[in-house]
Amino acid sequence: MSSPSSDAAEPAGGGLSRRRLFGAAGVTAAVVGAAGAGALAGRASASSTATEELQNSVPFRGEHQAGIVTAAQDRMHFCSFDVTTDDRDDVVAMLKEWTAMAERLTLAQEAVAGGAVGLNPYAPPADTGEALGLPASQLTLTVGFGPTFFTKDGKDRFGVADKRPQALIDLPKFPNETMDPARSHGDICVQACANDPQVAVHAIRNLARVAFGTAAVRYSQLGFGRTSSTTREQATPRNLFGFKDGTSNLKAEDTGALDAHVWVADGDGPAWMTGGSYLVTRRIRMRIENWDRTTLMEQERVIGRLKGSGAPIGYADEFDALDFTTKSSKGTPLIDMAAHVRLASKENLNGIEILRRGYNFTDGTDGFGHLDAGLFFIAFVRDPRSSFVPMQMELSRRDALNEYITHTGTALFACPPGLRDGDADAYWGSTLLS
Amino acid sequence: MSSPSSDAAEPAGGGLSRRRLFGAAGVTAAVVGAAGAGALAGRASASSTATEELQNSVPFRGEHQAGIVTAAQDRMHFCSFDVTTDDRDDVVAMLKEWTAMAERLTLAQEAVAGGAVGLNPYAPPADTGEALGLPASQLTLTVGFGPTFFTKDGKDRFGVADKRPQALIDLPKFPNETMDPARSHGDICVQACANDPQVAVHAIRNLARVAFGTAAVRYSQLGFGRTSSTTREQATPRNLFGFKDGTSNLKAEDTGALDAHVWVADGDGPAWMTGGSYLVTRRIRMRIENWDRTTLMEQERVIGRLKGSGAPIGYADEFDALDFTTKSSKGTPLIDMAAHVRLASKENLNGIEILRRGYNFTDGTDGFGHLDAGLFFIAFVRDPRSSFVPMQMELSRRDALNEYITHTGTALFACPPGLRDGDADAYWGSTLLS
């Protein structure tokens, strides 16, 4: 499901695609100069299949939702919503509208056919317009439902309390976290990833627009640079500690491992989640100033890898296996006992593996002369109780990295399976709500 | 000065470029996958000159600073600093260090040769590393000095009070603004623009890093998508109201108009500013929810252009001249008397023109269920007293757009001229401080 297809395809609903709206010449101009697209296309390099691929669309439908094992796009806009009504029908109506819009948006179409330029000049446009002319940019939109969607303040708002999966726990309090409630949790989340941030922001903004009266933005987070690779074709990016991040991440090609560690299997819990996954977010504030005043040797000890190449300490290549047993001539382990890569390794965690999909962020300043910067950690797991929770308990207790990070936001969402091709009745959450 | 050159060039100081650090094969891998670079290069599309151009370097030196008439890059990280010392020598030392680093960074080099991987493992790295392997991405770094750099609380901290240009005014209070002091003003600003946000953030972060003890981050603003074109080659991007923005902007090709409206001329004020420009910032919060519930007709009346094409109302092409005189069959002007494009036009403003260089932003949420989104307005002018101030006074009083916007941050900085080729003694601010 992560293989991009042509964005020239029309959805079942028909209508003009954003690219067609302007015709061939217009597309060239729009792609050259429209905000954000310049970085993708420059002067319309039709000769470059690589550039075109980054502009293409990712199939919206499939066994699983897109945006999980899809090759990690470069930019992200994550949004958590509070449902502001107790009316189940309103929620279902919104989710159906979201679904139709989301499928169109991932095809580089307006949220509603003709919406941006006004189906009726006396009505508000049905698309906000700022993505007109921009290519699909591999946009994926991934939806999830938080614990409070099932029960809030003891109340079963939408008649789904008995369908709450046991795996959708209230995450425990971990050591070394200072959670901001305003940046945590939420009833519904949408993860928008794209290679053009204007495309991702446009998608979230239009979903939030039509949610008016039914759901409201609880928080949103822009991620400017990806920190994970999710396919073997992608090279490993760097986080704001300057280290390659995610060398050992699960990859889309590891289908067996994905079945074991990412996708909810039949019998794992309620049937509506089969083929889905659990999304964990952690807004991790990095104390980059403290880090930047630390020696290279200490930085590499803390991480357990070399900063330049990303290779395990004692080795030369990024993808050399982590060597947890060999000791240096001084009798100390090559990889420190508290090094991040050791503690986060499946060897240390009885085989736990997660699919990471995080993004670097910079949100202004903290008011104390520093950048408010860090990593918006996203992971997809089959069951957080047996994966993320024990991993984070281990890391929060022992990781040498804790001196330089604080977790400031957290959430857990249940992401249902994908919508199947041709299933016109399916919508986001229909396995739960129908 | 806006024409990109090869980023393979070595600076006078020598040292490895980030691209060379990994060798040709490494570059391919890094460009493919490193955070942010994917959007530029995809799978190393060496065949694409357009993509390569967006990765190239922009000359750091010239008559004027880069980042003013340079073709507007797609992403921005703007940072305002407070100087935290009263020691002029410390400030000069920091500005010299900044200058050397900035020139290297714009060439896709580490802030200090070998810095990221550690000149000395027992010392902190002299580059934070997160841009290793990323191309120059047309990075420009533009410096400016605010009024408080000259006098703060009545004190001439650095012995330059008598060099404060009369044009570097304390901006007046305008109608319809709710200024946040924490997002306004500052002693020194650095505008980082690049086609890869990781490159822009890396640059600001490294300048902030070495400023420790001398200057501290007052605020920083990430802009995810440009809202201006500054060359005729660039197509007009869209702002978050969904309209093309900056159709009538001054362009790099208009050298006569730039001399008249952007560049400080000999005799305009103190000699140290000749060849420089004044940078105005306005953080403009857009009430996008209100806007999105407004009819297309009203949106187009408020702006004065058509949403789809960007053409003036009554015309078909974006670049058709604005027609302020023709009336409709109903006897009303085609372009409303309070339309934004009418009030901001040089025809209405006695010939005032400014060079705009703004960026779309989304900073989480406002806490009331909306995205905190808008436009970080940046303009460069020869003299704000005769350009920005009367323009903003007119707009803030009469613009129909005021119903949908609030200015929440403001600043004015004096940007000195560029550093000339081969002038090894010059540094950021040297015409002011030497």
Automatic annotation (TrEMBL), chains A, B:
Q: Does the keyword NAD apply?
A: no
Task: Briefly state the protein's biological role.
Answer: Involved in the recovery of exogenous heme iron. Extracts iron from heme while preserving the protoporphyrin ring intact.
Cite the PROSITE patterns for this sequence: DYP_PEROXIDASE (PS51404), TAT (PS51318)
Which domain of life does the UniProt lineage start with? Answer: Bacteria
Q: Which residues cross the membrane?
A: 21-41
Spell out the family assignment given in the record's similarity comment: Belongs to the DyP-type peroxidase family.
Q: Where would I find the Dyp-type peroxidase C-terminal domain in this sequence?
A: 236-418
Name of the protein described by the UniProt record: Deferrochelatase
Principal location: other
InterPro entries recorded: Dimeric_a/b-barrel, Dyp_perox_C, Dyp_perox_N, Dyp_peroxidase, EfeB/EfeN, TAT_signal
| EC category | oxidoreductase
Q: According to its UniProt record, where is this protein located?
A: Cell envelope
Q: Which cofactor does it need?
A: heme b
Reaction catalysed by this chain? heme b + 2 H(+) = protoporphyrin IX + Fe(2+)
Annotated GO biological processes are: iron import into cell
Q: Name one Pfam family in it.
A: Dyp_perox_C
